[in-house]
Amino acid sequence: MNQAPRRKIAFVIASLAPGGAERVISNLSNGLINSFEVVIVTFENSKPFYELDERIQVIPCLESIKQPSNFYQSLKLNSTLISRLYQIIKKEQIDIVIGFITSANILSIIASKLSGVPNIICERNNPLMEDVPKFWVFLRKFMYPLADKIVLQTQGVKRIYQKKINPKKLFILPNPIATELTNSRDSNNNGKENLILTVGRLDKNKCQEDLINAFGKIKKNGWKVLLIGDGYREAELNHLIESNELSGKVEIISQVKDIHKYYNKASIFVFTSKTEGFPNALLEAMHFGLPSISTDCDFGPSDLIVEGENGFLVPVNNVDMLAEKLTLLIIDRELRNKLSCKAIVSTNNYAAEKVVSKWEELINSTLHSNLDKTDYI
Q: Structurally, how many domains does the chain consist of?
């Protein structure tokens, strides 16, 4: 008896450069490839930063994109992208389209509707913060209700969207922790150093200056700080390090692929964001058993950290309280060990195989046009 052909899914995202959404798509694709044929459609040609199974096909809409300088150019570019998406969906015989991040979501909805195939979109931005260009905010208002299903990351974000969109379309699915990351954990803690780690884009929203300033206030006792990330603020943050006389004690490095090495050797993790969709780096750090301090920002950290149980939450931009919690963790090894054990246990539900299974359920239910009323977390 011949086996039925596997259904074909297409993830859509701007590129596969380093980033949270890009890592999630890579992890999901690697997990879903055993159940579906998987295609990743990018807006422009870019070498995948994260490792992909060789069976996964990556198709760019365009070879390269020149950023538009006016509304007409933007309209023309996005019309071209929709046209190319439509062509790829038809040529590759895609069964379902899955968008990631606002612009890709909107273009995916339009292209999938034109093609007559179902779609799922994944919103990862904080809907209360208008860091998305007004053009896309306007389109989001009208296009998102047309999606077949919308994946969100926290209950807080869901409460906002369900005021405007049919709640039956809204599903909460966590980000998967890459299996290779889980397998890279050093359970013996042999390589631990007196190192405080933070991971994230070097931009205004991540507020790495708060960690630098907090560290400048406390007794170092041989401890150092490492900032891992890329972004336009690197020179500004390096200047702050020098002006606080922290050269040699605080360092910035970028383009890191082997992030597990730093999770394994760090002893404390700090996350200072002003806003979040969902904090991947914080989740990964806790999965590695790092005692963590995070700002209690919207949205995500409070979904992961139970205050005093598996980490600490501090108000956004509260440098004094951050310095206080840092000091507490630096001087109390027993507390670090306690938080470490609790952090690992609390991230078990984010293991790749569990999250991929939930995604598989959602994809199949969408393919069969069966709106499922059940939240997935």
A: 2
Read off the tokens for 129: 């913060």
Q: How far apart are CA 182 and CA 149, in angstroms?
A: 29
Residue 377 within a domain: no
Considering the domain architecture, whether residues 363 and 320 belong to the same structural domain is answered as no
Residues 294-337: pLDDT tens digits? 999 988 899 999 999 999 999 999 999 999 999 999 999 999 99
Which structural domain, as residue segments, surrounds residue 280? 179-350
pLDDT digits (tens, 9 = 90+) for 133-178: 788 888 888 999 999 999 998 888 898 898 889 999 999 998 888 8
- The two most distant CA atoms of the chain are separated, in Å, by 73
Which residues in 69-82 are b (16+ Cβ under 10 Å) and which e? eeeeeeeebbeebb
H or E element that contains 77: helix 71-91
Q: What is the spatial distance between Cα 189 and Cα 185, in angstroms, rounded to a whole number?
A: 9
Find the angle CA(324)-CA(345)-CA(122) to the nearest 5 degrees. 90
164 and 290 assigned to the same domain? no
Is 2 inside any structural domain?
no
Helix (H), strand (E), coil (C) string for 118-154: CEEEECCCCCCCCCCCHHHHHHHHHHHHHCCEEEECC
Give 302-323 as a DSSP string. HHH--BTTTBEEE-TT-HHHHH
